[in-house]
Structure formats: C-alpha cells, structure tokens
Design a protein that fits this description.
about 180 residues, alpha+beta, Nucleoside Triphosphate Pyrophosphohydrolase, 2 domains, seven-stranded mixed sheet, three-stranded antiparallel sheet, elongated, NUDIX_hydrolase-like_dom_sf, hydrolase activity
C-alpha cells in the first residue's frame, strides 16, 4: 500500500511541454489534502567532452531573465517514450551540431520530485565530429561555448553555473571517475 492514497485527480493546466495536475489525497494518518504535480517527459543531459574541452550551451532563460551556461539537454515532447540514448544523441546534435562516436551512460536522476515527476538520463559524449545545429524556435538564441573542464568545475564551485542538472551531471560523472 502507498503512504499516500489518491482520492481524485484533475488536470488544471496543459500545454505541449507540461501538464499540471491537482490531486486530492489521503495520507496514511487519515488526513486529507491536495497535492500539485507537474508532469513532464524525462530528458537527457549530455556532457560532450573532447580532450579537456567540454562543449556547453548558453541561452536566455525567460523564467529567471538571464542568459545561463548549461550542458546540452532536452526532451522530445512529441515522443516522450524515446530511447534515452537516441534522445541524448538527438539533443546533442540539435543544440551543438556535434555527433558523438560514443555515449557513456552515467546515471538517472530526478529533477525536483517534490512537485514534478520529470527525471533525466546523464550521458558523456566522446569522439565528437562537428556538424550543423538544428535548433528549435525556442532555442534561436542558443550558442555553443567550449570550456576547459577545470574552468567548468570552477564556474560550478563559484556559483556562476546554477543549472542543477548540469551541476549534478558533472558531479556524478566526477564521483564515478568518468571525467
């Protein structure tokens, strides 16, 4: 039995990127309440590295009104059940134009499971060949920024890079001794 029972569920908002659900719940104590859940498809985040150079992307993030550096990442809303490695390869090429000879799986994490069901698969891409970017309309301002791995780590430590999934991907890959 679940610790929390769903008594009722209704979608209160939906667009092509996400769905917001409001659930009426009962806790194991018998207390009832509501729970807001953001449903989004899982995404892939890719750490493209060649030698000591990591290929980041920088783009304007409307929610915080700032340009930010992060690792290439994304989901395929039209195909939420896509094979994660194919998603990773596709997002890498779309955002950076890079094609990888090898993709090494690092792990799976959840983005913010306190309110959202979205998770992400982390990959390291190596053996990179430059091709053409295939940016979505929403990514029209995206640019590729090569950084030394040591500089990337320093930007995370200093707080300049604030994207949680980027920080986590670099941290997990480092802890596993993969970079």
């Amino acid at each position: 039995m679940s610790d929390i029972q769903t008594l009722d569920s209704k979608v209160v908002y939906e667009n092509k990127w996400l769905r917001l659900r409001e659930d009426r719940i009962r806790r194991s104590s018998g207390n009832e309440g509501i729970y807001g859940v953001v449903e989004k498809p899982d995404f892939a985040i890719i750490l493209p590295i060649e030698g000591d150079t990591v290929y980041m992307v920088e783009q304007y993030r409307y929610t915080i009104k700032q340009r930010q550096l992060e690792l290439p990442q994304g989901a395929w809303e039209a195909n939420p059940d896509a094979d994660p490695i194919e998603l990773a390869k596709g997002e890498l090429e779309e955002e950076t134009g890079l094609i990888a000879d090898s993709m090494e799986y690092v792990g799976f994490q959840y983005l913010a499971y306190g309110f959202c069901n979205q998770g992400y698969h982390i990959y390291i891409a190596k053996g990179l060949t430059q091709g053409a970017q295939k940016l979505d309309v929403e990514e029209e301002d995206l640019r590729v920024v090569p950084l030394a791995l040591s500089e990337l780590k320093q930007k995370i430590l200093s707080g300049e890079i604030k994207d949680a999934s980027t920080c986590n991907a670099v941290g997990l890959a480092t802890l596993k001794g993969l970079i």
